[in-house]
Amino acid sequence: MKRLIFATNNKHKVEEVRAALDGIVEIVTLAEAGLSGEIPETADTLQGNALQKAQWVWDRTHTDCFADDTGLEVDALGGAPGVYSARYAGEHCSFDDNIDKLLAALEGKSNRSADFRTVICLIEGGEPKYFEGRVDGQILTERHSNGEGFGYDPVFMPDRFALSFAEMPLDVKNTISHRGLAVAKLAAHLK
Ligand code: IMP
Q1: Residue 3: closest CA among 34, 31, 39, 29
Q2: Residue 85 has what pLDDT?
Q3: For 101, which of 24, 41, 150, 155 is 20 to 30 Å away at the CA?
Q4: 96 is catalytic
Q5: Ligand 1 neighbours by CB, cut-off 6 Å
Q6: Cβ contacts of residue 150 below 8 Å, gap of 6+?
Q7: Which of 69, 96, 97, 136 is catalytic?
Q8: What is the CATH number for 37?
Q9: What residues are paired with 114 via a beta bridge?
Q10: What is the mean pLDDT for each group of 10 consecutive residues in the chain (191 residues)?
Q11: Which atom of ligand 1 is found nearest the CA of 98?
Q12: Full-model pTM
């Protein structure tokens, strides 16, 4: 089976993506590929960051690989936090710090529309290709959680659902989520 290195240190993502690509490709982690260290992520777009991370692996291995980058884009905040979603409340901040900052920024605003967008960059034979997934929804006024998910999940309710991402079983989230849709496009390409 074809092997692809996934340029992430996030075990949760590796599990999610392995499940989605089961039987299509073998996903190799950075550790399994003998790579360690911080992968740079300094671009100012999701596409730029995904390319930067995948290119970092390609330059060291010359093996086909991919990386993803995700942002929460809030309409009333001009698309923020976007590419800075992980460190919205500062370097080394927690998911809770980010949610607190987001809820404060939206306090009193009636437009709570937002989307999650994921861009995957696949490098095959040195050539980058991009796959994008997006889910639209609303930012809730407070946390709703059953303990599922991570990040902004407790305050994001996708359109056509009455549950936040943090209240949904993971398999349901994966069928409609930004990353799930982007990975499905990657899977269709690889098949
Ligand atoms: P990454 O590029 O996938 O690491 O995502 C950047 C940041 O976006 C994460 O640190 C999270 O705060 C947020 N994020 C990404 N995916 C999700 C998700 O599925 N649910 C909630 N937050 C997410």
Answers
A1: 29
A2: 97
A3: 41
A4: no
A5: 68-70, 72, 85-86, 98, 149-153, 165, 177, 179
A6: 12, 95
A7: 69
A8: 3.90.950.10
A9: 74, 137
A10: 93 87 94 93 97 98 97 98 97 96 97 98 98 98 92 97 95 92 95 89
A11: 12
A12: 0.95
Angle at 30 between CA 120 and CA 126, to 5 degrees: 50
Please state the φ and ψ torsions of residue 132, each to the nearest 5 degrees: -120, 140
Give the pLDDT score at 129.
98
Q: Tell me the DSSP string of 127-173.
A: EEEEEEEEEEEEE-SS---SS-S-TTGGGEEETT-SS-GGGS-HHHH
Contact predicate 23/15, CB 8 Å = no
Distance CA 101, CA 108 (A): 14
Q: Whose CA is nearest to atom 17 of ligand 1?
A: 151
Angle at 179 between CA 47 and CA 75, to 5 degrees: 70
Q: Which atom of ligand 1 is nearest to the CA of 81?
A: 8
Domain containing residue 140: 3-190
**Ligand 1 center to residue 100 CA distance, Å?**
15
What CA–CA distance (Å, rounded) separates 153 from 166? 5
Residue of the CA atom closest to atom 3 of ligand 1: 70
Residue-level pLDDT at 171: 86
Task: Report the number of distinct structural domains present in the chain.
Answer: 1
**Cα–ligand 1 centroid distance for 70 (angstroms):** 6
Q: What pLDDT is recorded for position 78?
A: 98
Write down the pLDDT at residue 15: 86
What's the confidence (pLDDT) of residue 54? 98
